Amino acid sequence: MSKFIIPHDFNINKQLRAERNQHSAFVLWFTGLSGSGKSTIANAVEQVLFSKNLQTYSLDGDALRTGLNADLDFSTAARDENLRRVAEVSKLFTDAGIITLAAFISPLKSQRATIKQIIGADNFYEIFVDTPVAVCEARDVKGLYAKARAGIIKDFTGVSAPYEAPDSPDLVVKTAELSLEDSVEKVVNFVMQKL
Ligand SMILES: Nc1ncnc2c1ncn2[C@@H]1O[C@H](COP(=O)(O)OS(=O)(=O)O)[C@@H](OP(=O)(O)O)[C@H]1O
Ligand SMILES: Nc1ncnc2c1ncn2[C@@H]1O[C@H](COP(=O)(O)OP(=O)(O)O)[C@@H](O)[C@H]1O
């Protein structure tokens, strides 16, 4: 970053937005394998929060990769950049007073440490959607595991690229053991304690 960039101090800040919204804002960061349930849970949790008149927005891997991050593939360097950008966007959303639900595989511990550092530890909750690869593969929602096994997709997380489970996530959701309703309830209960 150039040392000649000096940010302007804006008077309408996160605190004022929180007072107007009557709730704080933070990022719920869902990490887990493809097909683990990140998007499904985030979507359902957002619906519940929205119905409670909370300010929310969802950011999702597939959606951002067709727009802002359309130039990035699935190499480690490109995933690093994908996640760095999403973390910066998430930070802007929380500054805007919005509870932000981010659903990204975010496979490496180093990536998630960077995300937490960008967003700020006080505004970041890591939710591990802990679903075994065998279960994700049996679901194969988008047919991607079959393509990865066939070698059609390279560097596929859980098959031919690594996934490092979080050491101390703020919340764990085991979707192979919990129904969708119970998974959503677990996250919503967590969020309601943080408002
Ligand atoms: N090689 C490879 N590995 C993993 N995933 C792949 C790959 N190629 C395409 N896809 C599709 O891209 C979605 C994951 O994008 P993310 O931005 O969440 O990935 S990452 O956090 O940068 O690792 C992921 O979406 P989800 O299934 O919702 O996780 C896949 O649909
Ligand atoms: N407890 C659960 N929580 C979330 N999804 C579940 C659960 N049980 C089964 N599923 C199914 O698993 C799939 C998860 O897909 P998706 O949400 O697209 O995963 P991801 O966003 O992690 O790639 C969906 O078909 C969903 O219906």
Automatic annotation (TrEMBL):
Q: Name one GO cellular component term.
A: cytoplasm
The family note in this entry says: Belongs to the APS kinase family.
Question: What Gene3D superfamilies is this protein classified in?
Answer: P-loop containing nucleotide triphosphate hydrolases
Which organism is the protein's source?
A: Paucihalobacter ruber
User: Does the UniProt entry include the keyword Phosphoprotein?
Assistant: yes
Q: Which residues form the APS kinase domain?
A: 25-174
Q: Which pathway is this protein assigned to?
A: Sulfur metabolism; hydrogen sulfide biosynthesis; sulfite from sulfate: step 2/3
What is the primary gene name for this protein? cysC
Catalytic activity reported:
adenosine 5'-phosphosulfate + ATP = 3'-phosphoadenylyl sulfate + ADP + H(+)
- Top enzyme class: transferase
GO terms for MF: adenylylsulfate kinase activity; ATP binding; sulfate adenylyltransferase (ATP) activity
Coiled-coil stretches, from where to where? Answer: none
Sorted alphabetically, which keywords does the UniProt record give?
Answer: ATP-binding, Kinase, Nucleotide-binding, Phosphoprotein, Transferase
The residues that the entry says bind ATP are: 32-39
Any Pfam family from its record, for instance, is APS_kinase
Which CDD domains does the annotation name?
Answer: APSK (cd02027)
Q: What is this protein called?
A: Adenylyl-sulfate kinase
SUPFAM superfamilies documented for this protein? P-loop containing nucleoside triphosphate hydrolases (SSF52540)
Source superkingdom: Bacteria
Q: What GO biological process terms are annotated to this protein in UniProt? A: hydrogen sulfide biosynthetic process; sulfate assimilation via adenylyl sulfate reduction; sulfate assimilation, phosphoadenylyl sulfate reduction by phosphoadenylyl-sulfate reductase (thioredoxin)
What role is this protein assigned? Catalyzes the synthesis of activated sulfate.
Q: Which InterPro entries match?
A: APS, APS_kinase_dom, P-loop_NTPase, Sulf_AdTrans/APS_kinase
Q: Does the keyword Cell membrane apply?
A: no
Report the EC code(s) recorded for this entry: 2.7.1.25
Q: Where is the active site?
A: 106
